[in-house]
Amino acid sequence: DPVFSNLEVTGTSSSNRVSGMPGRQSSVKDIVYTLRPKTLGMAYIDPATLSYTDTKTGLVQTLQTRRMGVEAIAPVPEKGGGAGAWFRVFFGILFAAGAVFGGWLFIRRRKSRWTQQTAVPIPILEEDFLDQLKSSVDLASADRRESFSALSKLFKRYLAAEYHVAAAGATTPDLVRMLAGQGADEGLLRKCESILSKADVVQFSGKDAAQPELDEAYTFVETVLESRLAEERTRRAQAKADAAEGKKSGFFKWLRKK
After folding, report:
1. Cα separation of 180 and 33, whole Å?
2. Half-sphere exposure of 97 (CA within 13 A, CB side)
3. What is the pLDDT along the chain (258 residues), one digit of tens a residue?
4. Distance from C-alpha of 241 to C-alpha of 220, rounded to nearest angstrom
């Protein structure tokens, strides 16, 4: 028997078998040791020596194993350990699942709170241009030509942003054609052509604009911006309500499933 260090034998078994082809068969004997470490740490199996005699040649042969080392790092429950071991495993898994769920819930709440605090509402295009209109165009200014020019430039920038066209440097007829290609309605196209054409005349003729013309153009631009601003606010409010309703509906569906 081999010599063990920090190991004890808990069982042995042996078996014999014959292998090979007819006329050239070998007899094989397997010896199995079941071992258990006495303490945690290193354990060793000393070399085992086996001598046998070759019946054909009469020579004695010797076989020897190498010294083997193993390390016991954790105890393994024996078979039939009782219900106590299963209860410990069950409560251990339950505790780990609770810790994971608690951590996930904490991170989700923190993420939701951070999203609410850092979420910046997307600005509305018309709201920005309305502020620019009120700050850059002075209807009471003595230089109505300059006011008409500022109004025209602001309106062109808005049309370029709203309809995604290159309005900078485009003539009034070219701009109207581009707007038509992007699906602008006929009423808007006619009014744009009228206002921008008057602005071109005022700019290139050197004459001052008439106050009624300036007031009319300002009122039209302001009306377009305010009406579209109201539409966009209504659309966003509806989208927010639909999203809240969708979350509520999804929650009740989850409850029904549970």
Report:
1. 92
2. 6
3. 778 888 888 888 888 888 777 777 777 888 888 888 888 888 888 888 888 888 888 888 888 788 888 888 876 666 555 556 666 777 678 777 777 777 777 777 776 665 555 555 678 889 999 999 999 888 888 888 888 889 989 999 999 899 988 877 788 899 899 999 989 889 889 988 988 888 888 888 777 778 888 899 999 999 999 999 999 889 988 888 887 777 666 655 655 665
4. 32
Query: In this structure, what are the phi and psi dihedrals at residue 147, rounded to the nearest 5 degrees?
Result: -65, -40
pTM listed for this prediction: 0.49
- Residue 224 contacts residue 188 (beta carbons within 8 Å): yes
What does the alpha-carbon distance between residue 190 and residue 224 come to, in Å, rounded to a whole number? Answer: 13
What are φ and ψ of residue 113, in 5° steps? Answer: -65, -40
Q: Phi/psi at 70 (nearest 5 deg)?
A: -130, 160
**The dihedral sign for the CA sequence 243, 244, 246, 251:** positive
Rounded Cα distance, 159 and 162, in Å: 5
Q: How many CB atoms lie within 10 A of CB 123?
A: 8
As a whole number of angstroms, the distance between CA 154 and CA 156 comes to 5
Distance CA 182, CA 159 (A): 11
Residue 139's φ and ψ, nearest 5 degrees, are: -70, -25
Residue spans of alpha helices (H) in the chain: 83-118, 125-136, 144-163, 172-181, 186-205, 211-257
Please state, in angstroms and rounded to a whole number, the distance separating the CA atoms of residues 133 and 94: 64
**CA gap 40, 3 in Å, rounded:** 19
Find the angle CA(132)-CA(130)-CA(116) to the nearest 5 degrees. Answer: 100
